[in-house]
Amino acid sequence: MKKITRSKAHGVHYTPPDLARFLAQVVWKHFVPTEKTVRVLDPACGDGALLRAVAKTAPSSVRKNLVLVGYETDPTALAGAGRILADVKAGELALHPVDFLSLEEVEPEGGSAEHLLFANEIGQRQLTAHFDLVIANPPYVRTQVLGSKKAQALARRFHLNGRVDLYQAFVKAMAAVLRPHGTLGLLTSNRFLFVQSGAAVRHLLTTQFDLKAIYDLGDTKLFEASVLPVIVVGEKGSSGATCQCRFDRVYESRTATDGTRLSHRWDSVLNALRNSIDGLLSTPKGRFVIERGVLAPRDDSKAPWCLQTSENQKWLETVRIHQAHTFGDVARIRVGIKTTADRVFIRDDWGTLPPDQQPEAGFLRPIITHDDAARWTLQSKRIRTRRVLYPHQVRNGKRQPISLEAYPRARRYLEAHRPELMRRKYVLEAGRQWYEIWVPQDPEAWSQPKIVFPDISEYPRFFLDRSGAVVDGDCYWMTLKPGQNPRWLFLMLAVANSSFVLNYYDTVFHNKLYSGRRRFMMQYVKEFPLPLLNSPAARRVMKLVSQLLKEELDPKIQEVVIDDAVWELFGLAKETCR
Fold first, then answer.
1. Which of 179, 201, 349, 439 is the most exposed place for a label (fewest CB within 10 A)?
2. What CATH number has the domain bearing residue 294?
């Protein structure tokens, strides 16, 4: 593993030896050589762990005919790769101090992929670019680290959309140089399985490959860095066959039993996977649950990938029979504000400022952050003191910044922080005033009754807010679409806070971080199911929620009753929970 400073800056997380060996074993399980010579590529080989693992786990009849090719821009790492590969008895080894993405022939469209030029210490030579096997743990570097110019250049060259990440370009480049029926063994962050920014990679892998196996290794802490890894193995050249792709998933056990049977102790998660173990297991690094199934079929190749079993398929079919709407049908869901200068705009000590710099009362609004989030109702005392300087209003149906001339104290305060605010060049380039909030949302919507919830939470924390407070960017908020019945808020609140929706989330989305924390992002919450509003069961749930919010009954008992009633809304009993 490289030093953490370099890892953070360059997305470099070297593959631990046992994980490299596991990936190589899975690749050889699905790759059948058709030629005497087998050409293997690692386009970001680092210290050579993956190339070494491929060679060491290759069948003895194949090993002497392997051509191992690696690219790496870090000379220290490349030298280390040369040392650990020195004793590998492969047919040929070629390590190149070149950025793989800089080669013209790796572009996904255009150019000739017939051959590549490889530079080494003795000059130039050509090798066939159609590799039989590509195994890689490409750098994982997001847009904000790459920088906008490099991200835009990668987007243009590799036809990427949305939030560009370096691994996306690598995946497209690797697919371009892999021969038909060659095998890809990809190790990367599992984020691409679930999030919108991973849609292009999911589409590429679904349409250009026959996927063979997926291993979502979750929070198994197999890397020193905070990367949740996934392994994807596929054969180049989608045949349209209906064969199912194996999907295994491993996550830390967060409860005593997790409702799964206990397996005996294993020395590592990877060895348990090698031996086709499932259920709850104990390892020296903690307790984990292994789930086994197949990749759920999707009509849209860009849709998030999820694990399907016969049990959860039947469960979801029952849910859909009783589903009439989704949250996104009846409500508008938005992220909170993004000031991009919180130190200036958000404070709880406004009263301590010099009197001539204390913004006028109409300029300051209460703000809700993830620290305030609680189930059902807003209970934080900090909301009484924390305020956001909110310089936006609606006039003639359009949002616009407030004129500072009408607020002399606020103007003096903002002028005192003008150098810091002016550094937000993207605000000025967008034609905005220098003192504006970058993402202010709709100034008129804050006063509407709204459901607020934090982006990251171990369990659902949805609450109803009628205070008119602004919502910070670490939370999302929902307001009903025009013409919708106000009672939807009570029903949505019940469903969102239920153990049912937690089970639904883990079945359909399963975007988890370390320590069991889930991402309650807009793309997921808008898909939460809702029954018919006026059914007798729904009316009962809404009445129960109204009583809970009014504290007419014991809230702990009431919450249990509501939870049971939500399961019944969808034709299920709580005992069917995963």
1. 349
2. 3.40.50.150
Residue 480 and residue 406 share a domain: yes
Phi, psi (deg, nearest 5) at residue 371 = -65, -25
Residue 11: closest CA among 154, 194, 177: 154
Residue with tokens 């990440």: 165
Cα–Cα distances (Å) from 153 to 102, 204, 271, 359, 500, in that order, read 12, 20, 42, 43, 44
Domains identified in the chain, total number? 2
Are both 301 and 392 inside the same structural domain?
Answer: no
Classify residue 405 by its DSSP letter: G
- Is residue 478 located within the same domain as residue 429? yes
Across the range 328-339, mean pLDDT stands at 97
310 DSSP assignment: H
Is 318 a member of any domain?
Answer: no
Strands 364-368, 470-471: parallel, antiparallel or unpaired by DSSP? parallel
Residue pair 71/170 in contact (Cβ under 8 Å)? The answer is no
Integer Cα distance of 392 and 139 in angstroms: 41
CB burial of residue 258 (10 Å; 0-12, 13-18, 19+): middle
Instruction: Specify if 321 maps to a domain.
Output: no
* pLDDT (average), residues 481-504: 97
Cα separation, 561 vs 540, whole angstroms: 11
**Share of the chain residues as helix, strand and coil, in percent rounded to the nearest 5:** 35, 25, 40
Rounded to 5 degrees, φ, ψ at 335 are: -80, 160
- Rounded distance between C-alpha atoms, residue 385 and residue 157, angstroms: 50
Q: Residue 492: pLDDT band by 50, 70, 90 thresholds?
A: very high
373 and 285 co-located in one domain: no
Which residue range forms the structural domain that includes residue 30?
4-308
pTM: 0.86
- Render pLDDT for 283-308 as a digit per residue (tens, 0 to 9): 998 899 999 999 998 777 778 899 99
CA distance 169 to 401: 39
DSSP structure class, residue 297: P
Place of tokens 């009431």: 558
List the CATH number of the domain containing 373: 3.90.220.10
Cβ distance 280 to 260 under 8 Å?
yes
Q: What percent of the chain has pLDDT over 70?
A: 87
* Residue 446 domain flag: yes
Question: Which DSSP string corresponds to 354-404?
Answer: -GGGS--GGGEEEEE-GGG--SEE---SGGGT-EEE--EEEETTEEEEPPG
